[in-house]
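Q: Start with the shorter request: fold the first protein.
A: Done. Sequence, then structure:
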Amino acid sequence: MSETGQPFIGHPIANLRHLTRFPHFMKHLLPLLLLVASPLWSQDLDAQRKNAQSSAEKSQVELRLDQPYAGNENAKQKVDLYLPQKRKSDKPLPVVALIHGGGWVNGDRLGYAAAAIQFARTGDYAAVTVGYRLTKEAHWPAQVYDCKAAIRWIRAHAKEFNLDPDKIAVMGSSAGGHLSSLIGTSGDVKELEGDLGPNTTFNSRVQCVVNLCGPEDFTQALMFDKEKQPIVDDAAVKGLLGGTYVEKHAEAIAASPVTYVTKDDPSFITFHGTADQRVAFLHAEAIHAALQKAGVPSLLIPITGGGHGSVSHPEVISRAKLFIGKTLRGTDATIDTTPIPALPEVKKQP
């Protein structure tokens, strides 16, 4: 969602087809691609699919599009699976599940194609991009039902694709950060599991969460005006809950990741701009405090002076990848928790 209150769309990639043509340039650009979590507005979905397939092929990644997880053919209730053609070992692969943002009203899993390819091309991971019903189609709790069904799909197909069902990370930005956090804290909450799809005997727990500027407590406003008063009339929140957080108080509590924090939750890392005007920094502080109080390993890394899009900082992605590697693969890594200075904003030419 944007700083102006509109759903945050992310940073468009001009052309996925050229992903592998400029390796030295892409070494520095690719971290930014991880935060793309919505459709590329200059292309239709068919073009995005072709670009994703082409980029995957060039990166020696096998791409399996449109895997249904809900027992129907709803285009949103599917995942895309990215598998390395050259694995580092014969052991089952850890999985990184990527959940797109867009204010719960926009976005598509294809927007995370570049990020998924970058994880899979290492040979160390499989990646899954998750689609879910948007608020134009369904209100809360449809979105979390869908995402949890997608995690169950991963476990149900672990043997088929040689995946490790006990090593799943979930990562998302903005609305995707909210859903990732909710999956992390509500692994033991039956009311949020839903009954979608044929894989209900599997659980939806994950082993770690990368939360990029996600809303965490809907009993508090996401935005505040210049006088620091809460903005109640938030279109994105109303679309999700079916009304304002004041009108839909019960739903606001139920949709909040902080509501479900318990000591057996997975480890978290949260990145959030301290000057985020779309999702206030207090949301990052709220989830971090709740996790710490419960004894759950939690890292909070502020992006000093950063707005809602500041999570695209290359250092954010670098630390997030270290966190995932340490948690899922047991790599020897120390995660730097010092605040990250926001990058200067690029001023638009008049």
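Q: Next, the second protein, separately.
A: Sequence, then structure:
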Amino acid sequence: MCALPPLCGTLPGGEGSSTYSPYLMMYNMWMLERFGDPGQLHFLTAVVAAILMCSHGCGTAETHEEESSKSGRAGSMNSRSEIVALVDGVPIFMEEARFMMDGGAATADEAVDALVNNELLAAEAIRRGWGRADEVEFERIKAQAALILRRVGEETTAEDVDLDEIKKRYSTQKKRFVHGPLRKVIHSVVLTGKKGMASDEARAAAQEIAVAVAGVFDADGFESEVKALKKKNGWKLKVESLPPFERNDDRFVAAFVDAAYNIGGPGGISSAFETKFGWHVIMMLEDLPASDISFEEARGILAEEILPGVRARRAQELVSRLVKEAGVFIHDKNLWAGAS
């Protein structure tokens, strides 16, 4: 390997970034971050790839083999980009490094190192007979399909989110933005009733819990102590952190809210008390201030939260349109019905 001086600093942007298959993982990571659903991403990529394969079906194996060779790769880019490294005579181009650095995914040095490693591994794969033209072509088309989905996502911004959808989200989550002072707690409840323990046993267990957690300082310590007692004694109980709630919150029974708000301050522990669910012990974690965030103030936040779903829908719309326009017909399903 003969490397030129290492790339440093920030490279200028440019059009026509390389789309070679080693970057398929980067595409998938980017799409997962935005679409959130791995199953949907893989499905969309597969469909687009299938359509692209149909459009490239007229090429010969010899042509694909030639395109995937070192000389074919170099010839496709040497007129468009400055060389930053050589690997056994094969050039690594600045344009490829820019692609690897896109969106801060890698520094300049990291990009060049990754490209050098990719070239070495690709050459080794060919040496071992793992670089068959059909495999390379399949990966290339998958990368093209992922690139299309990426570009569709990039073209869709928060400004494209429908205003009515944002208003609906604000309405259903209004308590998140407009509320009085909140209190956050963690609690344990020793269950009673048909699926729990006898009330006297549950009370004794809760009282033991209250003593055990008196010396802890945070939610993790509380949970750890309670779970240790549960494992040791076989008690039927739950321990959970609750979403912050107001003094008049009706999602919880009144006795629970009263006990939570009677605790003096962060780290304070309630005495054992009973509700219809069982015997509780509460640890107060923190008080949060009141909030009065208007729709206009929350609009940008909500648009960004909705955006991944909008991008996913647009990608699905693209795939549906391509399938319809291509006139896709699946031949005898018995050929693959038994495939795992």
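Q: Describe the second briefly.
A: The CA atoms of residues 88 and 247 lie 71 Å apart. The beta strands are 83-87, 90-93, 178-179, 182-191, 237-241, 273-275, 278-288, 291-292.
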